[in-house]
Structure prediction request, 531 residues.
Amino acid sequence: MSETPMIEAAGLDVHFGSNHVVRDIAFQVAPGETYGLVGESGSGKSTVLRTIAGLVTGWDGTLRVAGQQLGPRRDRAFFRRVQMVFQDPYGSLHPRQTVDRILAEPLEVHGIEGAEARIARALEEVALPRAARFRYPHQLSGGQRQRVAIARALIADPSVLLLDEPTSALDVSVQAEVLNLLADLRVARQLTCILVSHNLAVIGHLCGRLAVMQHGRIVEELTEAQLRAGEAQHPHTRDLIALSHELEG
Amino acid sequence: MSNGNLVEIRDLHVDFPNPQGFTPAVRGISFSMGREKLGIVGESGSGKSVTGRALMRLLPEAARVRAGALRFDGTDILAASERQMRGLRGGRIGLIMQDPKYSLNPVMTVGAQIAEAWRAHNKGSKREARDAALTLLEQVKIRDPGRVLDSYPHEVSGGMGQRVMIAMMLAPNPDLLIADEPTSALDASVQAEILKLIEDLVSARGMGLMLISHDLPLVGRFCDRVVVMYAGQVMEELPARDLHRAQHAYTRGLLDCMPSLSQKRDRLPVLTRDAAWLEKRA
Prediction:
């Protein structure tokens, strides 16, 4: 990669007490690229994402976003530039705030003007009906809630979107809609994304490159073409690919 | 009287109360099953779980359940006494739910829970119950059953927890196993192992299996027959091996919208919902 990577990790280690959960991870994501992290529960993939987002303390190594070195504490500009979408939209939206309030908060935090127009545009962008604006999360379906979570992540114009299993709590029919939406948005907004999932088909659908994680390490890095052609070297990757084909039937 | 069918459902309606009246969740579905593997597939809100719960009479009291027939092995579920139902629930019908984190008792060891289930439906001493629990853990292929017996649910992984749940459901030797999204909370590799385990146990013990899931290809792989539900009605019923030849647009839509590893597509086809699917079916 000749240009400066948007996201760069080198020698990243994370400890939770005496548990060494991420071990010497290194990868780079180019601007506009969508990079996949795949692995089973406990492989450390979500922890890598949370560490980049600043949700994990007690890490070592180098992390850079847009060339800037990240420290243990992040400034406000960082949180405007990097946003995250979580797996469970039931858990990640405030149950007692309306969609309008949920979307207004990032704008207030970052001192962004023109909330009215921005919220209307954000809802339109994620294809939510206008009527959804003054509803509470429990009045929306799972897919609509995930759209709100995506709208909230995008409303402050981030350049990096971290996606942690964004569709695994959704029906397959709704998953298709959300995956299409993410594919459209990343082009329209020129987003750099990291997508964490245990589902290889979902990763292959959105990502150009991916890393396979096991026991806190990256065991292999593949391109989408290599993934689809089954050109994997590591036995764990091969197992995951074989399994995915088997479940597709 | 039993006509060889384990489950007989005819014109089942389930409505839930809302401030204005009732919201229909199941709108006149009919199907029957024997000792086979039947998949019930549909999206959230299609009524698939409610159907399973109605068969065990596990719905909230406020729910209104009506049916031409709702029978388990000849027993009329709607007319059965609470005592009869206790014999069926967990006895002749086992229920495996989505997330073992919530369906296991967090303050009881795994062994004690399985032993409790065993003693609720078998006569025997505590010692025998513990031995039975150990044997059941072996049957669900837990490698170190002695250790798992004395652990608490939070000390075991999700896949292991689901194995424990299955062991507990097998304790009374049920005739029917209802598995409601049994693997949605699990990793793909564990998912395959658990379904394989359920499949093996069901075949070996000659039980019936009702597998409730939103994942159509998955259900197609593990079941003999598939019932596809949408908005409280059955859209299509077909043998699992003919799934790729499904006629109904809804079934086709559910199959098409999955991303695939073998086939690259820029956009996923989304389900276009036809208002005609909502119309009352004969």
